[in-house]
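Journal club prep, notes for RB
We'll compare a predicted complex against what the paper describes. Inputs for the glutathione case:
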Amino acid sequence: MLTLYAPQGTVAVAAHVALEEAGLPYTIHWISIIQGEQRSPEFLAINPKGRLPALLTEYGHLTETPAILDYIADISDKFMQSDPFQKARARELISFLAATVHVNHAHGPRAARWSDDPAAHVSMAAKVTETMADSCSVIEAVLPNAGWFLGSYCIADIHLYAVYRWFEGDGVAIANYPKLAAHFAAMKARPAVAKVAALHG
Ligand SMILES: N[C@@H](CCC(=O)N[C@@H](CS)C(=O)NCC(=O)O)C(=O)O
């Protein structure tokens, strides 16, 4: 049995959707970021980075959304291309989402990670709409006019859905990115996604 440690909302939505879509048996262990449970000794024993999500497998814990998504794709034999180049393209988008877009977003709510200066927090947060809009332009340019990122549904589509949920709150005018908006609508229409979204609010 897999156990996903997850707060509501956040990038953990991606791992949750992947588990639900895969049809694998799993349970959710909710962790409250608002109450600081990611810093509790119990959770730090699971993930010393104090970040979510984390996935407990029969072999031990996994952290980092790209690794968790890869693992779920591998054990379910779903949601990953078999062609090496297409597989690398899926990982290319996932890497961009994790290493650039998520970090751009975090400069708003999590600016204190990078500076102790309150003025710098304000300055970093002021840049988020611009960096997230830049990220949207990059993604819009690689999405097809219709359908999934690589033609068949894969973990990159799932990761993109979780990250997409931040764009409007970060001040990005989604109407400027019609392919991205259509992709989000297609994701929301999937029963597994709707089920998970209802749990995350
Ligand atoms: N690279 C990690 C980032 C995980 C991450 O930063 N998660 C946030 C929630 S979106 C978190 O745990 N924040 C808690 C904190 O900063 O204390 C991943 O992609 O899974």
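Talking point for the session: The domain at 2-76 is CATH 3.40.30.10 (Glutaredoxin).
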